[in-house]
């Protein structure tokens, strides 16, 4: 394991990776604890902010170009942001099922995208498995 590829990456990639990696412990806390109360809300808001940073920062990452400077992963970023808004709105209107499904959907998308970053030619793949 070496941080060299990440430290050599552009700032947008570093911010994206730090925000995405910060989601790991928060996700474990949210999935493992009771789904109500002040701690769920506080950790949840931190999670939402980090997820939004992860999604928004992706728009400055252009390693794979399929549609101009963008790729299919950018569609996931748009879906993530829209789903976060939907899930927050669902919670505020008492739609707990919509909130739960929205947040679980965003979590699944984040986890899937995270696994994709571990491919050998990707920066995080090089960080975890070596150059």
From TrEMBL:
Signal peptide: none annotated. Keywords: Membrane, Transmembrane, Transmembrane helix. It comes from the Bacteria. The chain crosses the membrane at residues 6-31, 43-61, 67-89, 101-121. It holds the Pfam family DUF2306. This is Putative membrane protein. It comes from Phreatobacter oligotrophus.
């Amino acid at each position: 394991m070496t941080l060299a590829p990440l430290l050599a990456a552009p700032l947008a990639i570093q911010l994206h990776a730090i925000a995405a990696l910060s989601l790991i412990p928060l996700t474990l806390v949210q999935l493992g604890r009771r789904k109500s109360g002040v701690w769920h809300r506080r950790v949840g808001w931190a999670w939402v902010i980090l997820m939004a940073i992860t999604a928004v920062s992706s728009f400055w990452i252009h390693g794979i170009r399929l549609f101009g400077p963008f790729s299919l992963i950018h569609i996931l970023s748009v879906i993530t942001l829209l789903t976060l808004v939907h899930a927050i709105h669902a919670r505020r209107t008492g739609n707990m099922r919509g909130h739960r499904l929205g947040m679980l959907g965003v979590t699944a998308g984040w986890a899937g995208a995270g696994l994709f970053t571990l491919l050998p030619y990707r920066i995080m793949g090089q960080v975890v498995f070596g150059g």
